[in-house]
Every structure is written in structure tokens, then in C-alpha cells.
Write a structure and sequence with these properties.
It holds the Pfam family Maf. By secondary structure, the protein is an alpha+beta fold. The protein contains 4 helices and 4 strands. A hairpin with a 2-residue loop joins strand 3 and strand 4.
Length: 154
């Protein structure tokens, strides 16, 4: 089972698990963890991924047709501040402007939950953005894409 809200992420995982039956189930985990409670961003992203996977596993309950649930979460970190999904054009513009021409880190947490166990991990990637002109930001915002991506990511 795969908890995925973004179709692109689901496609990537499905392709890498071609020889296994995969069912995509969106998680209903409330992403309301207190970021201040996590001194390192990777701990936050791991805990969020685990929360997503556990929520789906809990709904699957005693069904016999699942072996593992995979949950994932991604955040962008700039100046030690976690940037999640912007939710509005104004917030997306603010994020993209702050990322423009700068380096930042993208953390992806991955959680596996199975009957009787769980494991979490993360990956950190250093990313350098080219300078973004206001016109480029406007064009990207008009696509509607940045609203549901951590850091308003292109």
C-alpha cells in the first residue's frame, strides 16, 4: 500500500515496485505537528511520513491483502525554517522570492509500516536555485502548481 497525494510521486513508486501489487491510498493524517518540537528538520519530516503511513495502516486494520504501507513527506528548509505547502498564491510568491538565487535543503522522509513493525529514514538534498524574475514567478503561479508542493517547488 502506498499513501500518496501527489500522482507524480505515486507513479515513481509504482514504477519502482513493478513486480508487486500496489494500491494507492491517500492518507488523512493531519499535518499539524509542531515544527518547534523538532530541533532538526529531518526528524519532523520522518515523523510526518510515519504519521501518514500509520494512519493508512490503521484504516487497513486486519485486511489480509497488505504487507507494507509506504508513507512519505517532503519539506524545504531555508535559513533553518521549514517551508511546507504554501496554500495561497501570496505565500507561494513569498517562498519563491526567498528561494530565488539561493541554496537550501530539501528533506524527504520515508516511512514503512507493516504488521508488527515500522522503519523511518530520510534523505537530504542541497539545491541551488537560479535567480527567479518576477515574470518567471508570475508565470509559475498562474499554472496553479505551487500550491500543493513544499516550498512552492517548481
Amino acid at each position: 500500500m502506498l499513501c500518496a497525494e501527489l500522482l507524480a510521486r505515486a507513479r515513481i513508486v509504482t514504477l519502482s515496485l513493478q513486480n508487486f501489487p500496489v494500491e494507492i491510498i491517500p492518507s488523512h493524517f493531519e499535518e499539524t505537528l509542531d515544527k518547534a518540537a523538532f530541533p532538526q528538520p529531518w526528524r519532523y519530516v520522518e515523523e510526518t511520513a510515519l504519521g501518514k503511513a500509520k494512519e493508512v495502516a490503521g484504516r487497513l486494520g486486519d485486511r489480509q491483502d497488505w504487507a507494507v504501507v509506504i508513507g512519505a513527506d517532503t519539506v524545504v528548509v531555508l535559513d533553518n525554517k521549514i517551508l511546507e505547502k504554501p496554500g495561497s498564491d501570496a505565500r507561494a510568491r513569498e517562498m519563491l522570492t526567498s528561494l530565488s538565487g539561493r541554496q537550501h535543503t530539501v528533506f524527504t522522509g520515508l516511512a514503512l509500516v507493516w504488521k508488527g513493525g515500522e522503519r523511518v529514514s530520510h534523505e537530504a538534498t542541497l539545491v541551488s536555485f537560479a535567480p527567479l524574475t518576477p515574470q518567471v514567478i508570475d508565470s509559475y503561479l498562474s499554472s496553479g502548481e505551487p500550491l500543493d508542493k513544499a516550498g512552492a517547488y517548481p
